Amino acid sequence: MRHFLKKHYKWVAIVIVIALITETFVLLLDNNLINPNKEEAAVEMKSDSMMAADISNMTGVTTEEIIKLKDTGLSWNEVLEQLKLTKLVGNDEDRSKRSGLLAESGMDEVTSKLQAQGFQNEDILEAKMLAERLQFQLKELGGGNQPAPAAQVPTASIDKKEEDQQERYEKLLQQFNVADAVYFMLLLEDKVGSAEAVLDEYLIALQLELDLNLYISDQEAYIKARDEKRMSSPSHEMITMSGIELALLEQIQKNNTRIKDNLTTTTQGTAASIDVKDSKGENILPDVPLPVIEDIKPGNPAADVMKEIEAINPNRP
User: Fold this and answer.
1) 72 and 126 in one domain?
2) Which of 105, 129, 131, 271 lies 20 to 30 A from 154 at CA?
3) Confidence (pLDDT) at 251
4) 62 and 177 co-located in one domain
5) What is the CA radius of gyration of the chain?
């Protein structure tokens, strides 16, 4: 054996080295150290999910639809181009619907004027929705959408301040014009700061009987006229969007309290009217005879004794 190893030492060493290398290769293969395809595939899958989520946030398309497009073999750039084309088609359909809504609302003239100045249908429709919401709130406060009360409340019992405020809401509702509000919102938003701020200014202009077109042509002249008018009539606080929302909240709370009080009163009245009589007015409980109470007054002992003596008296006739 020793002679064999000595004679074939070189070949034995080569075999041992090959065996060690093979074992090391197997271990490395199991640990994915020399075959990173699996790990790279996992990283790539995670990266695809993140990319799909980002694209979904930007476009509004679901991640599942984006992944399906990617799985067809498209690159991410090609996926974006495909989504862009799809979105453009959808936007055309949306634009057609929005144009129809604006045409049906009777705002053709204002829409044409705003479009001529570069405003899109999306901007016009958004402003219109905001103006209509404010109009609805004024109707709620002015009593336009409230049902008539069951019983007429005497005028003397109505709080004078609340009555005056309701009249102001009704008057403002009559003056309010959705088309004008949309027009001023879009033209003055950059100057005033926001669409809501423009609506506040529009409400103030209506209350002070000012023309908001003056703000467009001469901002300083309008502000001067507005301040002078407010100084001359300081008795009333100007109605604004925030004030309207607060008044609506208070109205809801009062209505809830009134309903609760009515329910309490009704419940108490029903409980007080409960009787044990039947529908004919007769008592539904059986009649119970009254007990007969005998006289339990004790007798006179002396009288009893005299009666017994009298009974045994021999001289008694």
Assistant:
1) no
2) 271
3) 80
4) no
5) 48
How far from chain centre, in Å, is Cα 284? 54
Tell me the whole-structure pTM to 2 decimals: 0.52
CB-CB contact of 239 with 208 (8 Å): no
114 and 188 Cβ atoms separated by less than 8 Å: no
Phi, psi for residue 225 in degrees, rounded to 5: -65, -40
Instruction: List the one residue out of 244, 179, 182 whose CA is nearest residue 207.
Output: 244
Q: Which domain holds residue 196?
A: 108-145+162-257
Is 25 part of any domain?
yes
d(CA 260, CA 312): 88
Pair 101, 110: CB distance under 8 Å: no
Domain boundary among 210, 232, 257: 257
Residue found under tokens 């202009």: 205
Q: Do the beta carbons of residue 134 and residue 181 sit within 8 Å?
A: yes
Any idea what DSSP says for residue 150? S
At position 267, the amino acid (one-letter code) is T
Output the CA–CA distances (angstroms, integers) from residue 222 to 44, 175, 215, in the order listed: 62, 19, 5
CA distance 209 to 212: 9
The CA–CA distances, whole Å, from 98 to 90, 112, 237 equal: 12, 14, 38
d(CA 203, CA 176) in angstroms, rounded, equals 8
Which DSSP helix (H) or strand (E) runs through 88? helix 76-104
310: tokens are 């009298």
CA dist 68 and 199 (Å) reads: 46
247-285 pLDDT per residue, tens = 888 887 777 777 777 777 666 666 555 554 455 555 555
User: Which stretches of the chain score pLDDT less than 50?
Assistant: 4-5, 33-36, 39, 43, 87-94, 147-152, 154, 157, 276-277, 305
Give the Cα separation of 214 and 191 in Å (integer): 13
